[in-house]
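dumping these here so i dont lose them again. two proteins, back to back, each one seq then structure tokens. dont judge the mess
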Amino acid sequence: MNKIEFLSRLPLFRGLPDEELRTLAEIAGVKTYRRGETIFLDGGEGHGFYVVFTGKVKIYKLSPEGRELILHIMGPEDSFAEVPVFEGRHYPANAEAVDDTRVLFFPREALLQKICRDPSLAMNMLAALSARLREFAQKMEDLSLKDVPSRLSAYFLHLSEQRKGSDELDLDIKKGLLASLIGAKQESLSRILAKMSERRIIEVKGKKIKILDRQKLKKIAAGDRTLFS
């Protein structure tokens, strides 16, 4: 897939004419990162934003004690670090390649010139940022108000929504990373997965998760502890 075809599929650039997509493709550089390699650090100067072409990227913060809190896992076609484009300041979190990863990088100055010429691009970016803000607010609510089974169930339902309601899910991140993403210890995650399997709520086969009882999963995600006591 070439860059123009790839860009045309992104919500950020949806509806832009081919000429505008070609201009964006010209300013977008391709960067490659090895698994575990840092893309940028919290507080680093925000030179531009990124879109995942292949691979996965984790966005995370570190507590003063060094505990890692994963904010997002970004996969192909996901954009990240848009805020510094508008704010002109520093990256607000760390970014690291989870797998061998390729990204498209859009330099801030070149992109700002493009936005000035085409305000519809700014509207698309603001819409994407608004969606990210809602997702972040939901994550903070989940971490503060819900228990681990509820957060895990909500995550599985989110994956299902991304796959158009499919009950067949590919758990394409390691369990340790998933545990960090939902704010749990890996041992707790393993126990919860085992209990969900025993109760025939889900079926776990390696990295494959199959939702067996969606209604019970929804009830757990909503905070119903009776099904998991």
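---- next one ----
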Amino acid sequence: MPSLGAYLVVGACAALATFVATPIVGWFARRMGWLYHPNDRTVHTEPVPAIGGLALFFGFLTAMGVARLWDSFDPLFARNSEPRGVVIAACIVFAVGFVDDVHPLAAPTRVTATVLGGMVLVWFGVTMYYFRLPYLDVLYIADDWVPLVTVLWLLGMTQAINLIDGLDGLAAGIVAIAAGAFFLYADRLDDADLLTPPNLGPLMAIIACGVCLGFLPHNFNPARSFMGDGGALLLGVLMAVSTSVVGGRSDPTSQAFVGQTYFFLAPLALPLLILGVPMLDLAFAIIRRASRRQAIVAADKGHLHHRLMNLGHGHRRAVLILWTWTALLSAFVLYPVLSGENPTYLPFGMGALAIVLFTMLHPSVRRRRIGNA
């Protein structure tokens, strides 16, 4: 497998390509009139280019091209059909998201495209093989169940990231933190020879982190470009591939680490915790809309970021609070992985308590309560 330095160079190429392409894409979007206009669900007041995901897609393809041409990555590409499957699936899912950003599509069309992308991943073998039940046994996935598991995993990741993309820089920052943390986890497993080779997981994670870091300077409040559905769905594909081929292919028989290093013997639980903010938001959205007998894809203003703003937090502060939660969850998961020791829960508990107190007792929140009294 490639060295840590090689992965970081590819991630840097993804970031640089995305950073350079974003203003060009924004100029093109304004020329074409492909802008996201303010409405009752948004917090911005001026039209913003809606196809920033095209820059992320360019960064992804650039990074994949650099890796393909680099001898260090030959073990991942030589006689391996999986990279082609990832690129084709990403093209399908991104293309439909891009069209939706320009001319809104019906929700079933977007879901169908995601399912098709999942079936492409299955066809090219980009699937998980097994997963470990916490403190129990390893569950091997039967061939008949592989397509369903792959499609559901992809749908969950893409929808979670798409739903959290509601404030400037929110989705890009969360994915950058989560993907960076997951890359470190995957690289640690690779160093210990616990990943089934060749494994695309670390490469997909560092590319996802790179494109987000390159996009963030243009996307943080006040945003000059939105990633749109195309960008959010693309990030969902990269995170779904990375987490599935790492969590579902790490050596199921090894006891080389303490239980906490595998996070309670369940590697697939790790991405769900690192991506806890968007996953929790997705779960709440499903419950909220089901209780109101609304379609799961129905738009509303009940997401976590909307609730923080309703409490009285400003745009940037709401984003930073959710970034901090993601960073805390990532640190909690990574500590035993990188140190090889059992986690010390007290610092993380104190960190969580500090975030809660800051969120609920900030002066702006108290002023909002007094104003509503």
